[in-house]
Amino acid sequence: MPSSHLSHLSNSRDRRRGNAIVGVMVLLLLVTLGLGGNYIRNYQTDQQQEEQAGPYAKYGLGDLELLAEGYKMEIAKLESRHGGGRVQTRNRHHFGDQVREFERVQKAAGKARDKAVEIAQTRGDLKEIEEEIAKRQPSETDFDVHIERLFRF
Question: CA 20, 26, 7 angle in degrees (round to 5)?
């Protein structure tokens, strides 16, 4: 084979190899830009979520744990005083006594409902505190957070 033909083949291979390298570099650049943009978007989303934090976000973890214990004790106290169940009625023979008995039962049932609402609200507050405590548990390393931001869509 003539040397000019070999040099032409060599140049052709070099050109194809160069084109392949350029193609890979362009692909890497596009992937890097895409992942970088995705990371920035997810970082901004995370920052917005932190700004919209709940009412207990400013408390320290130790304070939240003490607060949760206090709420648990309060719930136990409310439940022990509440008693639950239906209000017992007494049979009355006279119409006036029946009206008074009806009013007594209605008043007692209203108090029972109010206590049940108070217990439910206290349980809801406790749940929010426990969720805030769970969010703060060190479940991920900084590296894991960055990787998750990079690939979250």
Answer: 25
